[in-house]
TrEMBL record:
This is TPR domain protein. Pfam families: TPR_16 (PF13432), TPR_19 (PF14559). One of its GO terms (molecular function) is mannosyltransferase activity. GO terms for biological process: endoplasmic reticulum unfolded protein response; protein O-linked glycosylation via mannose. The keyword Lyase does not apply. The keyword Hydrolase does not apply. It comes from Aromatoleum aromaticum (strain DSM 19018 / LMG 30748 / EbN1).
Length: 573
């Protein structure tokens, strides 16, 4: 017998032992083995037909002929009525996404092993794949809850998982409300209701249910963290943080609560406080690579590169799964330290994956900054990738050309891509901006209007067209309407607020302009927003405030041509 055949028969022997353990026993072992009656598993006589069917199922599955394997296992389950075979049939059928066969196998499993909570959970999960069988799911789960009093808490906590594949979350909420009705004195029932309610976008009902759960079990950490999440999603981040902080004060040893608190601080953009919390966690677990990564990222966000770089390198050396993300961040830190060569070294170590394209674009940008524009373009053109990534690379190449004042070449490059994909939103937007810089206003307007017709909710297309008209003092009422539409689509966007302020100023309404520009600058102190804000302040005879804004912005953006030009125009240095 050759070695391949030996391995095959050995593997089949193990498989038979799994499905028919009685046949894998020696005579001596049989004497000591429990009887079929004592185990509740039906005794089996291994017929030639059964062995053939079993081998057919396993070999077909190994060869990728899943349909044959499913049918063979289902036939075997029907013949043997063995719960182990039925379970295996369910697994194979679910792998093949054959819900009909999976349902039939699960029914056999429940019939022969009616006390099995696992079998009922599996059946509910299978049935939940089709909303038309929700009533059957409800019946199965109601029976599971009623017949398993010793496991009722666990089953209640798993209810929502049984309906994970159902799209109609309102229907799911109704079913879970009905299933939990007999158990409302249990906090787990209220928790299940809270989960179902938030999945159905009913935050009020979810919060009410979780409060009832906490009324029944006041210091339940899982419910406290769930409520904090609800509060954060309801624009009450301070209340969420306070809730977790009070729990930590009562339970300073709770690592889960501390991690949730630190993450909440990050979401609230309180980076300094978040880093302090993650540092405390890291002090207690100095070898935790996830905590190294978190403290490193927050340190980088706070421009504390001396702390960030070694922590990120430690996380990398500890085998953190986000290795390429760490390398990308280390490259960015090197850039911020004006270490171009160090940055290039890090970027070149980023492997193929979701960070690879970003790294290649940064490599090209650094090469261009070193005066190697042609080498930068060749680098981008050499990257092998799919159509979406290629588009990103071409847009990045156009940005490099634009930065060098070669807008005409950039537009030619993007036009070449547009000929391949004439309705691509990104290409239309970029080409319109390049056309505007070249004074080709008809081209710009035509492409932006085409983009708006393709994507009526593209806020930045409305804004770009409105701002371009306002900046030239053209069709100001139309410009205001376009920017207003952009603000409706994206309220609070600082750049759109800046545009609205600028069109108000062009219309002669400096007071309204000032309100928009001050809000925009408070949200994002961009140099162009600062230039506009200073000019409006100057027109209101607030020259000192204008000068202060310009100097403040210039200190943060010393290379800003926009700021230098506006200050020179008004005689400021």
């Amino acid at each position: 017998m050759n070695r391949t055949l030996s391995l095959l028969t050995a593997g089949l022997g193990l498989a038979i032992a799994f499905a028919f353990p009685a046949f894998a026993q020696t005579a001596d072992a049989e004497a000591d083995a429990p009887s079929a009656e004592s185990t509740g598993i039906p005794g089996q006589t291994l017929t030639a037909q059964m062995l053939y069917t079993f081998l057919l199922a396993e070999i077909a599955g190994a060869r990728g002929e899943i349909g044959i394997s499913v049918q063979a296992y289902l036939d075997l389950a029907q013949r043997t009525r063995d719960p182990r075979i039925a379970r295996r049939a369910v697994e194979i059928a679910l792998f093949a996404r054959n819900l009909s066969a999976a349902t039939e196998a699960a029914r056999i499993w429940i019939d022969v092993e009616p006390e099995s909570a696992e079998a009922r959970r599996v059946m509910a999960g299978i049935l939940s794949g089709g909303s038309g069988q929700l009533e059957q799911v409800q019946i199965q789960l109601a029976r599971l809850l009623a017949e398993s009093p010793d496991q009722i808490e666990n089953h209640l906590m798993g209810l929502n998982r049984a309906f994970a594949r159902i799209d109609d979350k309102q229907a799911v909420k109704g079913i879970i409300d009905r299933l939990t009705e007999p158990y409302l004195d249990l906090p787990e029932a209220q928790f299940a209701r809270a989960q179902a309610a938030i999945a159905a976008d009913d935050a009020i009902a979810s919060l009410a249910a979780i409060d009832l759960a906490l009324g029944l079990r006041p210091d339940w950490e899982l419910a406290i963290l769930f409520k904090a999440q609800l509060l954060a999603q309801s624009d009450s981040p301070d209340a969420a943080l306070q809730l977790i902080k009070e729990h930590i004060d009562r339970h300073p040893e709770s690592q889960n609560a501390r991690v949730a608190y630190a993450r909440g601080l990050v979401s609230a953009r309180r980076f300094e406080a978040a880093r302090d919390e993650f540092r405390k966690l890291l002090d207690n677990a100095p070898n935790d690579r996830d905590l190294m990564y978190a403290v490193g990222l927050l340190s980088a966000q706070l421009d504390d590169f001396d702390a960030a770089a070694p922590l990120l390198e430690q996380a990398l050396n500890a085998g953190h799964p986000e290795a390429d993300g760490i390398r990308l961040n280390l490259g960015q830190i090197a850039e911020r330290r004006d270490d171009s060569e160090g940055a290039l070294r890090w970027y070149r170590t980023v492997e193929h994956g979701r960070h690879h394209t970003d790294a290649q674009i940064r490599i090209a940008a650094l090469l261009a900054q070193q005066g190697k524009l042609q080498q930068a373009r060749e680098h981008l053109q050499s990257v092998q990738a799919g159509p979406d990534t290629i588009k990103r690379l071409r847009l990045a190449e156009a940005q490099l050309l634009r930065a060098e004042g070669r807008e005409a070449e950039a537009l030619e490059l993007i036009d070449g891509e547009l000929r391949k994909a004439p309705e691509d939103p990104d290409l239309l937007y970029e080409s319109s901006m390049l056309a505007e810089q070249l004074g080709q206003l008809d081209v710009m307007e035509g492409r932006l209007r085409k983009l708006i017709s393709l994507q009526p909710d593209h806020a930045h297309a409305y804004n770009a067209l409105g701002y371009s008209l306002a900046d030239r003092g053209l069709r100001l009422d139309e410009a205001e309407a376009l920017i207003g539409r952009a603000l409706e689509l994206t309220p609070g966007d600082p750049f759109i607020l800046d545009s609205m302020g600028w069109v108000n100023f062009r219309q002669g309404d400096a007071a309204t302009a000032l309100a928009h520009l001050e809000k925009a600058y408070s949200l994002h102190p961009d140099p162009e927003i600062a230039a506009h804000l200073g000019e409006v302040l100057w027109s209101l005879n607030r020259q000192a405030d204008a000068t202060r804004i310009w100097n403040e912005a210039l200190q943060a953006h010393p290379d800003s041509t926009v700021l230098k030009n506006i200050m020179q125009r008004f005689g400021q240095r």
